[in-house]
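[Meeting: bench + compute handoff]

Bench side (C.D.) handed over the final construct sequence. Compute side (W.E.) agreed to return the predicted structure before the next meeting so the bench team could plan truncations. Sequence as handed over:
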Amino acid sequence: MTRINSKISVVKAFVFVSLLLILSNQGCNSQSGKEPGDSLNKASPSPTIHVVFTGEENGYLEPCGCSEVQLGGFPKRHTLINHLRGKDENWILLSLGDLPGKVGRQDEIKMETALDALGRMGYVAHNIGEKDLNMGIDLLGYLSQISNVDFVSSNIVDLDTSAFNIKPYIIKEIKTEESILKVGILGIVSPELIESAYLDVTVVDPVLALKPLLSDLYDKTDILILLSHAEMEESIKIAEVYPELDLIISGHLVDRPDLYLKKVDNTYVIPVGEKGKYVGKITLSTRRKESGEDEHVNSSSPAIETTPLDGKFEDSSEITMLLEIYQERLKDEELLAQVFKSDPPSNLTYIGNDDCAACHNKIFKHWEETGHASAYETLVKAEHEYDPECVECHVIGLNYFTGFETIESTPALKGVGCESCHGPGSDHKETLSKDYGKVGIENCEICHNDEHSPHFEFEEYWQKIKHPAEEK
């Protein structure tokens, strides 16, 4: 399909502007005393809109704080958006999808908190991703009813009922000094990402689903944007089929969005990155024909920027307070007591640091001087001591029976203790087995992963915690 009415190609736009330039110069030269270009200088500037896009949060409301070099967080995002709005109010904020990362009560609270934050920032639309769907149809319907952000899905066909406030597309009107621009926003999720057979929904091939919607929207809008919750290759194919799309926001499983920007004819395909670490921005300009016909998008050289949310952005106090309420909800619902637990290996049990100290007193005293010993206190200082996702790496055996439960009931299991690395010690206590608790890099990387400890080097870190030699 090609644009005929309201939108023309870059080549036609170039020819049109060139002819206009020649005619203007000729007109000026034929009139007394006027320099070439005077008429152009008096022409009204092209109307512009600015689009901010994020997505693929995967449950990351804010960095965990375990490392100084971490990107992202809703509080920093709010600060950036407020800064952008201070320069220009014509912003459209869009969310690609996948607010939660897992399935469970904590992620239900997290998803509700995230939508609240998006609403406070002024987001227009949230596209439904596969992880949003995994939270369950009932929750999705409830959130679609209470959220200030419109839910969009163009290829999930079973959600158009009174229980769901989910739309196949929305049209957002942006008032500029020159005119009112109408922006059509659609959203799809790739059927390849839908794994849960129990979900009672039908996900249609995006190419088939978009055809009637784009036909309907084409003459009603000035700009068309697709939120494509799919891998870049699939989004590029959609751009090839539908060149009338001005912008496709995409990029499932893209860690560095600035490396994957693509242009297909006149359509830009731009990824958002993962875990809310980056904010994407693009400025699209329009240019009105002198004859008074419809405006068209002039996307020959839009301003595109991918901004990492690093330390130069302060945390917004409003969103910080919202995340404090989130932590209070985790505490009030006692989610630590609801953590799913399994049996420790070989039916062993955790015994606690004090039992280890009875025989390994020299090692125990050394451990008390390491950062591992005060790991729980760092959570208390950050007021995250009731957050199961944080507590997991700051105590002994949270995810196992006989492991940490609460600070009141299992105080001997706080901190990153002996059994955090060496495993449950009940058998070693009884038999004094020589082969107990051998530790390798794989034990450390459970918590010292790329997200929480990006500069982790086993040999370097090992020197900080290595046991002193024991007297025999």
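W.E. noted at the follow-up: The domain at 337-465 is CATH 1.10.1130.10 (Flavocytochrome C3; Chain A, domain 2). C.D. will use this when planning the next construct.
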